[in-house]
Design goal:
Elements lengths: L2 H15 L6 E5 L6 H9 L4 E4 L2 H10 L6 E4 L8 H6 L4 E5 L2 H10 L4 E7 L12 H14 L3 E8 L7 H18 L6 E3 L6 H6 L4 E4 L1 H4 L4
Parallel strand pairs: 1-2, 1-8, 2-3, 3-4, 4-5, 5-6, 6-7
Helix pairs in contact: 6-7
This protein binds pyridoxal-5'-phosphate.
The site of pyridoxal-5'-phosphate has 14 residues, from strand 8 and helix 9.
């Protein structure tokens, strides 16, 4: 799928939810280390890119330094990689998955950094993220106690199944948490990937992270 085709599909899904919903697209580039692929996407208009490994992100950030790209870190962040990541000055860390991780990032960051709280909305044990029941308390505690964590909202990965009902349920659960956090400044509800972004947008997502379905057409 080209970026144009993706935008058209997002547009239709968005209108099924609300004409007021604006959806941002983060292009996930973890499947390639060919910088030409990223440049092609950039030339098509894409500005936000997502990576889930610090090392891979470092190569791409350095290789594309001259382009005004917004880098989103979306992977599981190991504590020993935090300094390396912060040096890259990412636009946002989407994968704050515990209070403990937030504490360490808060301590190492020299200035506030935009972050999302990752929620394990499908409760799959292999997935990272906070239990939904703890998400609101943890969000508020981070906001109160950790000044360098500039929380902007929540992120989740949908249930890993072909059962649309289950996928929808995990997105709806995350959206409800997001909705309760809006009075506290939450603006971003990041959910939806290649296989389920339309369902996510129908459930209120305003940021999708699309990799495989998009990247293949540019490789
Ligand atoms: C890989 C990844 C994506 C993109 O997944 P696709 O199915 O390839 O679109 C989105 N979010 C996270 C956290 C990822 O790790």
């Amino acid at each position: 799928m080209t970026l144009d085709e993706l935008i058209q599909r997002v547009e239709k899904a968005r209108l099924r939810r609300s004409e007021h919903l604006i959806v941002q697209i983060v292009a996930v580039t973890k499947y390639t280390d060919n910088l030409e692929v990223l440049k092609k996407l950039f030339n098509d208009g894409q500005r936000a890119f997502g990576e889930n490994r610090v090392q891979d992100m470092e190569k791409k950030v350095k290789g594309l330094e001259e382009l005004p790209i917004e880098w989103h870190f979306i992977g599981n962040l190991q504590k020993n990689k935090i300094n390396k990541l912060l040096k890259l000055n990412p636009f946002m860390i989407q994968s704050i998955n515990s209070f403990e991780l937030a504490e360490v990032v808060n301590k190492r960051a020299k200035k506030p950094i935009r972050c999302l709280l990752e929620i394990n909305s499908s409760k799959e044990p292999t997935k990272h993220g906070l239990e939904p029941e703890k998400a609101i308390d943890t969000y508020l505690k981070i906001k109160e106690e950790l000044p360098n964590i500039n929380l902007q909202g929540v992120m989740t990965i949908g249930a890993h199944t072909d059962d649309e009902k289950e996928i929808r349920k995990s997105f709806r659960l995350t959206y409800n948490i997001f909705d309760k956090l809006k009075p506290y400044g939450a603006k971003i509800c990041s959910m939806g990937m290649s296989g389920d972004f339309e369902i996510a947008v129908e459930e209120g997502s305003n940021m999708i992270r699309v990799g495989s379905a998009l990247i293949k057409d540019y490789m």
